[in-house]
TrEMBL record:
InterPro entries: NPH3/RPT2-like (IPR043454), NPH3_dom (IPR027356). Keywords: Coiled coil, Ubl conjugation pathway. Residues 144-436 form the NPH3 domain. It comes from the Eukaryota. This is NPH3 domain-containing protein. It comes from Aquilegia coerulea. The keyword Lyase does not apply. Residues 475-509 form a coiled coil. GO terms for biological process: protein ubiquitination. Pfam families: NPH3 (PF03000). Belongs to the NPH3 family.
Length: 563
């Protein structure tokens, strides 16, 4: 540059776009004049770039700056993952020359190869330790785990590193841990909605834009959707909440909703309490009920698809163990029903939540999902208390979502005295309590009627009253009830035989001797028992679903007395 200058007496030249700026040029100049410089993780990438820019290569001198930096890279950077990540982070300020001389791609490929080797070695060591540590217990992540260092990278570099790691076959669990650490670090402080906090270095719009970019990128890097996916539900929920507040794309939010729906039985109430995106709107609801409605719908649809796939296999199985505990499917839907009822009780306090949305939420799950509906009754009672201006017709419509036959005795007692409920429901609750009391007083053979009574559906689209949720469980329940009925009929036949014997012996006694008043009274009592038994036997008839609807649907007119 000096030789090509037009002025032979030039004493100052300008170097543009020197990698590392004045610091990089100073190190290169010191190296030229024999001043000892120390190559470190923080400057090796800069020295590689500045030596390329100034053409300080072996073609002009042996052991030049470029070769010295290359030796350091090969010996101390590329073999170790943590060192590679640190140098890769330094390359972010050295673009595009760091890309041109192939430093970035070399480091990323080195990280992927070393991580793959580490995973293989770790797997072999676990095999040796199975005699001491059970295989189903995952060891804690070490404090110096290299995955935590990836949080210092920019989003673009992180995507490239994870893409290389996936290509090398890194486990999805490890990918998920990396994403969780990165999200916690990158989104920390960006979720603040307090205007005093937002007044810092970013405006509200800039914060939301950065949130949106990070959330959409992380969701795109998540493992494929499946029931066996190991992404924690709390992490997915946090991403969805941030994505809604940051106005993420519809595709991004739909992806998160489906992932949560596939693992909804693992969620807790906090995971589904998603704040509504209500900017400067005081008439919005507190929570985003539309999103929750879609999530529960996804869960129900997936459950129905699984049941349909297994239906033919279950029908061909004839022998079952009826005394086994709840199946995983049944336990799953029971957890989800409790979760939904807890959510209803929470959102019921929102004065801006309209009745139609509350009813739609209450009816998201099929009838057989709730074995006991005390929690649903509690949520409805909270809603009526928080919305005292609800019309009587709307109260009636709301209470129709409750199957009174599935209320416990305590809930029935509370409902019978609850002034917020419509009169139709109070009458129905009192009638059911009367039937339960009558069956409890009669005992014995009336258990047969109690088992039939417990299966009356309240709504026309209700499932079996046994609470089964799959063809296998439903079939097992029917078989169990059938055996109980057969035993009850056998007891009744034995009792009938005994009464017939008593009747014959009484007739013979009358023939042999003159009957006394005591004998006549005894004979009369025996005949009454016999007639009662025949009357009970004749009353056992099939009961159609239409008759059950007639007995248990809400009455349109108030009744002044109960018979």
């Amino acid at each position: 540059m000096l030789s090509e200058a037009s002025d032979s007496k030039v004493s100052r030249i300008t170097l543009t776009n020197v990698p590392g700026g004045s610091e990089g040029f100073e190190l290169a100049a010191k190296f030229c004049y024999g001043v000892s410089i120390e190559i470190t993780l923080s400057n090796v990438a800069m020295l590689k770039c500045v030596s390329h820019y100034l053409e300080m290569v072996e073609d002009f001198a042996e052991k030049n700056l470029d070769s010295q930096a290359e030796i350091y890279m090969k010996n101390l950077v590329l073999p170790k993952i943590s060192n590679s990540i640190s140098v890769l982070h330094c390359c972010e300020s050295l673009l595009p020359i760091a890309e041109e001389i192939n430093i970035v791609s070399r480091i990323i490929n080195g990280i992927a190869c070393n991580a793959s080797k580490e995973q293989l070695v770790s797997g072999l060591s676990k095999l040796e330790k199975f005699a001491v540590i059970p295989p189903n217990i995952e060891p804690d992540t070490p404090p110096d785990w290299w995955g935590k260092s990836l949080t210092m990278l920019s989003l673009d570099f992180l995507q490239r590193v994870l893409s290389a790691l996936k290509t090398k076959g890194l486990k999805q669990d490890t990918i998920t841990k990396i994403l969780i650490n990165y999200a916690q670090k990158s989104l920390h402080g960006l979720v603040a909605r307090d205007p005093q906090i937002i007044k810092g270095s970013f405006s509200d719009a800039e914060l939301r834009k950065k949130q949106k970019v990070i959330v959409e990128a992380i969701v795109g890097l998540l493992p494929n959707q499946s029931r066996k996916c190991s992404v924690p539900i709390s992490f997915l929920s946090g991403l969805l909440k941030t994505g809604i507040l940051a106005s993420a794309s519809i595709v991004c939010k739909a992806d998160l909703e489906r992932r949560i729906g596939l693992h909804l039985d693992e969620a807790i109430l906090e995971d589904i309490l998603i704040p509504a995106n209500s900017h400067n709107n005081n008439h919005h609801t507190l929570y985003d009920t539309d999103t929750i409605s879609r999530i529960f719908t996804i869960y129900v649809n997936v459950e129905e698809e699984d049941n349909d796939e297994n239906h033919m296999t279950i029908e061909n199985e004839m022998d079952y163990d009826f005394d086994i505990p709840l199946s995983p499917k049944q336990g799953s839907i029971l957890k989800v029903s409790k979760l939904l009822d807890s959510y209803l009780a929470e959102v019921a306090l929102d004065s801006n939540l309209i009745l139609s949305k509350f009813i739609a939420l209450a009816e998201l799950l099929p009838d057989h999902a709730r074995v006991v509906e005390d929690n649903l009754y509690r949520a409805i009672d909270i809603y009526l208390k928080a919305h005292p201006n609800v019309k009587d017709s709307e109260r009636y419509r709301l209470c129709k979502t409750i199957d009174c036959q599935k209320l416990s005795q305590e809930a029935c007692s509370h409902a019978a005295q609850n002034e917020r409920l419509p009169m139709q429901m109070a009458v129905q609750v009192l009638y059911i309590e009367q039937m339960r009391l009558r069956n409890a007083m009669n005992g014995g053979h009336n258990q047969f009627f109690g088992s039939i009574h417990g299966q009356f559906p309240q709504r026309s689209n209700s499932a079996a009253g046994s609470g089964a949720i799959s063809p296998r469980d439903n079939y097992a329940s029917v078989r169990r009830e059938n055996r109980e009925l057969k035993l009850e009929v056998a007891r009744m036949r034995m009792r009938l035989t005994e009464l017939e014997k008593d009747h014959v012996s009484m007739k013979q006694e009358l023939v042999r001797s003159n009957p006394t008043n005591t004998l006549l009274r005894s004979f009369t009592k025996k005949l009454k028992k016999l007639n009662t038994l025949f009357h009970v036997k004749d009353d056992i008839k099939p009961i159609s679903s239409s008759s059950s609807d007639t007995w248990f649907l809400f009455q349109k007119k108030r009744r002044h007395s109960l018979s």
